[in-house]
Design goal:
4 domains, alpha+beta, 476 residues, Nucleotidyltransferase, domain 5, five-stranded mixed β-sheet, 11 helices, rod-shaped
Length: 476
């Protein structure tokens, strides 16, 4: 049973080649290999529909690995080789990002950029900048997600094939990848892979209207001469590079040997899957799967990919991503700490308020004692006030009705339960009686005021006696 597995997806304009590679006990083997032709029309442009079709294709061909590496054809990539002066490692991404904005004509927002590791070039560093259309990468990522796949990297298929090809690289090695859809080139040096190119030549018989084999060989040899002549340091190189050929287009071996002779290069034709370090297996039956198998192999080896548009070296460094459980635990711990802090602050505020109230209460003790003494005295006096007869105020008004001078006085006063009173007395003359009677009549606290009699006392005296009946109308 394979302990580690990886799925390689080599994407071209016509198909997606899928190869599943497994590793166990140091042995690498191709588990499954198949080609998924891209549908025509809207189905290829809709990532959800394309992803569902890809998922059914993988299930039908018994693919079981969900982790994958996606490889792009060189036709979709644009590359620029740059020489930079000595620069600190932490400043390199910023310098390269500014350089990339000037090198590529497209809007930087429409591209995803990455670069190879800087190679020491004596007076500075040599770096290869590579750009991929963002819409193509996003489309492939959405398709993989709809297919239930987890993408670990997005890179160049040809550069992955160059990195996975067995054999000790010379000072420079030229890898020629002949696919049914065309030819791709990748030049290697002692510092790493560089200069991936798509040659504008279709293999004979690969497309309608292709040129005959001899003419095709001449065209290909001319393109290779032009590329090799433009390589940095090519004229001064004491040793020509080796030509390594992956023949996935099914061309005759003699024709490829003749190509090496025309270029005066040592030629080696790679055998699939042996030259990828994979044991011969029933699933590994076609050379068209070489690029996809190389993608899977590079995905299994840490640091084997020269480019990764999903984790670009030009992107800002990401912080360490915490696991979901750690994030939840940290969140709960933060809530507990915040809750405890809130309770502590609330308790501290309550203690402070209690101290302030205790101080105010101590300051108010003399005032409270004085107020309590007044309340006690008032309550004691109110008892006397509440127990006096209800008509005492009426008697006061009755007294006030009499003048202060001693011209009239009362000899008797009787009050019944119905608050009717009978008043009798004497006066110096009749006018004094009439004055008192008038005052009683005009006072609203008395009603039914009636004089019973006014008569002289007799015996030679001028005094008169009188009697008045009345009723206490308002009793407070």
């Amino acid at each position: 049973m394979m302990s580690r597995k990886m799925l390689g997806l080599a994407v071209t304009e016509r198909a997606i080649t899928a190869v599943e590679v497994g590793v166990a006990h140091g042995r690498q083997a191709v588990l499954h290999a198949a080609e998924f032709p891209l549908p025509e029309g809207d189905a290829a442009r809709e990532p959800d529909a394309l992803g569902r079709a890809l998922r059914q294709f993988l299930k039908r061909n018994h693919f079981s690995c969900s982790r994958c590496v996606i490889g792009l054809g060189t036709r979709w990539l644009a590359s620029r080789e740059k020489s930079l002066p000595p620069t600190a490692a932490d400043l390199m991404p910023g310098v390269l990002s500014l350089t990339a904005e000037r090198e590529f004509a497209s809007d930087p927002k429409d591209l995803i950029l990455d670069c190879t590791k800087p190679v020491d070039a004596g007076q500075g560093h040599s770096v290869l900048l590579v750009a991929a259309p963002r819409r193509n990468v996003d489309h492939l990522l959405a398709t993989a997600e709809a297919a239930g796949l987890s993408v670990t990297a997005v890179t160049s298929s040809t550069m992955a094939l160059a990195a996975a090809t067995a054999g000790a690289p010379a000072s420079r090695r030229v890898l020629l990848y002949l696919a049914p859809g065309g030819a791709e080139l990748c030049v290697q040096s002692s510092g790493g892979s560089c200069v991936p190119r798509c040659l504008p030549i279709a293999a004979p018989g690969a497309a309608a209207g292709a040129s005959p084999e001899d003419s095709w060989m001449s065209d290909l040899a001319g393109e290779l001469h032009r590329v090799l002549a433009l390589l940095p340091g090519a004229p001064a190189s004491p040793q020509p590079p080796d030509l390594v050929i992956w023949n996935s287009a099914g061309l005759p071996a003699k024709a490829l040997e003749a190509l090496g002779e025309r270029l005066s290069l040592a030629t080696r034709q790679c055998a699939y899957p042996a030259d990828l370090g994979i044991a011969d297996d029933a699933a590994a039956t076609t050379g068209e799967s070489a690029a996809a198998a190389a993608l899977a192999l590079c995905g299994l080896q840490s640091g084997a990919l020269a480019l990764d548009f999903l984790h670009s070296r030009l992107s800002p460094r990401r912080r360490f991503a915490l696991g979901r459980k750690v994030v939840w635990a940290a969140g709960l711990a933060a809530l507990v700490v915040i809750g405890c802090l809130a309770l502590f602050l609330q308790w501290q505020n309550q203690v402070r308020e209690a101290d302030e109230l205790s101080g105010q209460l101590a300051e108010m003790k003399p005032t409270v004692a004085a107020a309590k003494d007044i309340v006690d005295k008032t309550a004691f006096a109110r008892g006397w006030y509440d127990r006096r007869p209800k008509f005492l105020n009426c008697l006061r008004d009755l007294t006030n009705a009499f003048p202060t001078e001693s011209r009239i006085w009362t000899t008797s006063l009787g009050v019944g339960e119905d608050m009717r009173a009978l008043l009798s007395g004497k006066a110096a003359d009749e006018r004094a009686v009439l004055e008192v009677l008038d005052r009683l009549t005009n006072n609203p606290k008395f009603s039914d005021v009636k004089p019973l009699y006014i008569r002289e006392v007799g015996g030679g005296s001028s005094e008169v006696s009188f009697a008045i009946s009345l009723r206490f109308a308002k009793v407070d």
